[in-house]
């Protein structure tokens, strides 16, 4: 079956309704029912609870509390690299931004301008730059951390579709990451600006950041913007910046200049928070 045919049902499904219902179920404090749901999920996806700060599944009062669980201290040491991987998951794609286009999958690219919500001036800061797209599966740890130290400049919530973001959908839906709902966070760093985009998906009940809290819902249908210039919201490398309530994808944009991705990286490869992602100078280690 072709990828386009495989994703056809997603065009027909009531994705927003399904997402709303999933969010209500996941946030419900249902006692033994919540614990049973968590136990079934752990068994189905092989979640390693030994890595969690709270390994007792019965200690979580809702599925969301479990899904956004913290890791135990020391579970993800940071590599010595200019840029470290911000999530657990798998590599979708990474590489150069080519004439303003970000590669999605074979036969598909989308514009950096569309990704950041139509802000051409912001996208121009990443012309001939670099990108990385990282997919978080249901079994993964779902907090997002900083690839490097940065000071928050702005945040935009861009309304959009709620297609799945799994590899099949990435191959079958044109412009997927620039058409789904997303939260665009722009930072300044010692290496220049960078953008970290949290991409929504089917049954992703909400996305949240540490400085704002839950960003969506509400889903107003129009972009919402926040300007943090001069507020001094600074996060260190490896520090938590946000989280997904159910799995999704992160897209990062970096400016032009010498940047070498980890030589061990390849599309489809599993990744872990804190491993070396890229270096602005010498090639990074594969730690």
Oligomer: single chain
Roughly what fraction of the amino acids lie in strands?
Answer: 25-35%
Whole-angstrom Rg:
18 Å
Secondary-structure element sequence?
HHHHHEEEEHHEEEHHEEEEEEEEEEE
| Overall average pLDDT | 89
Overall structural class, as computed from helix and strand content, comes to: alpha+beta
Shape: globular
Helical content (DSSP H or I, runs of 4+) = 10-25%
Number of strands: 18
**Helix count, DSSP H or I runs of 4 or more residues:** 9
Q: Please mark out the parts with pLDDT under 50 across 5 or more consecutive residues, or reply none.
A: none
The largest β sheet comes out as:
9 strands, antiparallel
N-C termini distance: 38 Å
Quick structural summary:
This protein has 287 residues and is an alpha+beta fold. The protein has helices spanning 3-6, 8-12, 15-27, 32-45, 63-67, 112-115, 120-124, 167-172, 176-179; strands at 83-84, 89-96, 101-105, 108-111, 130-135, 143-145, 150-158, 182-189, 192-199, 206-209, 213-216, 224-227, 234-235, 240-245, 249-254, 260-261, 270-271, 276-279.
What can you see in these coordinates?
The protein has 287 residues and is of the alpha+beta class. It has helices spanning 3-6, 8-12, 15-27, 32-45, 63-67, 112-115, 120-124, 167-172, 176-179, and strands spanning 83-84, 89-96, 101-105, 108-111, 130-135, 143-145, 150-158, 182-189, 192-199, 206-209, 213-216, 224-227, 234-235, 240-245, 249-254, 260-261, 270-271, 276-279. Strands 2, 5, 7, 8, 9, 12, 13, 15 and 17 form a nine-stranded antiparallel sheet that branches. The protein has a four-stranded antiparallel sheet with strand order 6-14-10-11, with no helix packed on it. Strands 1-18-16 form a three-stranded antiparallel sheet, with no helix packed on it.
């Amino acid at each position: 079956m072709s990828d386009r045919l495989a994703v056809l049902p997603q065009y027909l499904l009531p994705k927003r309704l399904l997402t709303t219902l999933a969010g209500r179920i996941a946030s419900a404090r249902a006692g033994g029912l919540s614990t049973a749901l968590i136990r079934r999920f752990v068994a189905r996806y092989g979640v390693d609870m030994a890595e969690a700060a709270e390994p007792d599944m019965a200690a979580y009062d809702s599925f969301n509390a479990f899904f956004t669980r913290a890791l135990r201290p020391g579970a993800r040491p940071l590599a010595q690299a200019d840029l470290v991987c911000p999530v657990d998951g798998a590599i979708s794609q990474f590489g150069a931004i080519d004439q303003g286009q970000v590669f999605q999958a074979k036969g598909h690219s989308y514009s950096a301008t569309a990704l950041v919500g139509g802000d051409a001036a912001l996208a121009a800061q990443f012309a001939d730059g670099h990108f990385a797209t990282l997919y978080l599966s249901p079994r993964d740890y779902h907090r997002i951390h900083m690839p490097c130290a940065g000071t928050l400049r702005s945040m935009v919530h861009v309304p959009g579709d709620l297609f799945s973001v799994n590899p099949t959908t990435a191959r079958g839906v044109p412009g997927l990451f620039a058409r789904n709902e997303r939260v665009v966070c722009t930072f300044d760093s010692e290496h220049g600006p960078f953008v970290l985009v949290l991409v929504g998906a089917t049954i992703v009940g909400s996305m949240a950041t540490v400085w704002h809290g839950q960003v969506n819902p509400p889903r107003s249908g129009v972009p919402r913007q926040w300007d943090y210039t001069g507020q001094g919201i600074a996060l260190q490398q490896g520090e938590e910046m946000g989280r997904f309530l159910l799995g999704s994808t992160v897209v990062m944009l970096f400016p032009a200049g010498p940047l070498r991705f980890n030589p061990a990286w390849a599309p489809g490869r599993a990744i872990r928070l804190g491993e070396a992602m890229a270096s602005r100078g010498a090639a990074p280690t594969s730690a």
